Amino acid sequence: MGTILDRIIDVKKTELDYLRGLELINDPDRIRRSFIDKIRQANEMKIIAEFKRASPSKGDINPNLNPQDQAQLYAKFGADAISVLTDTTFFKGSFADLQAVRKVVDLPILCKDFMIDKIQIDIAKQAGADLILLIAAALEEQQLVELYHYAISKNLEVLVEIHDEEDLKKANSAKARLIGINNRNLKTFEVNLETFEHLAPLVKQTGAFIISESGIKSVSDVNRVNQAGANGILVGETFMTSENLKETIQQLKLPTRTVI
Questions:
Q1: Residue 157 bears catalytic tag
Q2: Fewer Cβ within 10 Å of end Cβ, the chain: N or C?
Q3: Nearest residue to 210 via CA among 186, 187, 227, 185
């Protein structure tokens, strides 16, 4: 039967022919927005605020929310970058969502998807992404390295997502500068912040910047990953369901390495 990740990747493979049939338009005047530069200059936790309608683990989260409205609020209330889920089958997103967000914000945008082919990177860039996600668990080592360097050649930044030491080995092979530690196991979708605490010191040894992904719900959660060495956090469900988004974002924007 396979894991949830296996099923997602199987669907991605069926989408490639359709994507290859789309017309790509090059934009030579495209503005480069660097999230890595923001981290390099920061003394506070950088926040990637995610637009995510649904997920395999939670089902519908906030399916009717307008991506442009939410993105503008993210920008207004202090997010440093915006992540847009573009998977349709499992997350109810689309590249159209990313295009819509690009039209209304000037922040770096992460295309959050399950990338297995160069054409997905091309489509993400055309839609307005500044960063793409590569999930180590979904790729063989050489495949990850090739896609990583292809994205870099297209003037995109790459967030390489890991969940264990084997994933980190793949990320190191690509010489990743920005590594996301996913506290959610993509095979079971269970979340545990101990994953970050275990892996962060190993990532720090590589010199890469570190993003903590999944399971961030409170100031104590942020403080926990902060102390373990996070440079930033990626937060989706907590922001998508917040009744006071301004307060929620500002509460999580801690000075780095500060105990409270």
A1: no
A2: N
A3: 227
Catalytic residue among 15, 46, 50, 83: 50
Residue 260 counted as domain residue: no
Q: Is 244 a catalytic residue?
A: no
Mean pLDDT of all residues in 84-102: 96
d(CA 213, CA 141): 21
Q: What is the DSSP letter of 255?
A: B
Q: Is 112 noted as a catalytic residue in this protein?
A: yes
Mean predicted lDDT score pLDDT of the chain: 92
176-192 pLDDT, tens digit each: 999 999 998 777 778 88
Q: Cα separation of 185 and 205, whole Å?
A: 23
In a domain, 193, yes or no: yes
Catalytic residue among 12, 161, 185, 231: 161
- Mean pLDDT of the region 157-178: 97
**Residue 155 a catalytic site member:** no
Neighbours of 169 (CB within 10 A): 12
Per-residue pLDDT tens over the stretch 96-146: 999 999 999 999 999 999 999 999 999 999 999 999 999 999 999 999 999
The catalytic residue among 185, 213, 223, 226 is 213
| Contact of 111 with 84, CB cutoff 8 Å | yes
Told to judge if 92 belongs to the known catalytic residues of this protein, a careful annotator would answer no
- The verdict on residue 33 lying in a domain is no
In the residue annotation, 146 being an active-site residue is answered as no
- The CA distance from 4 to 73, in Å, is 32
State yes or no: is 12 an active-site residue. no
Q: Which residue among 12, 15, 46, 52 is the active-site one?
A: 52
Among 183, 214, 223, 226, the one annotated catalytic? 214
- CATH at 196: 3.20.20.70
User: 19-59: per-residue pLDDT in tens?
Assistant: 999 888 777 678 889 999 999 987 889 999 999 998 887 88
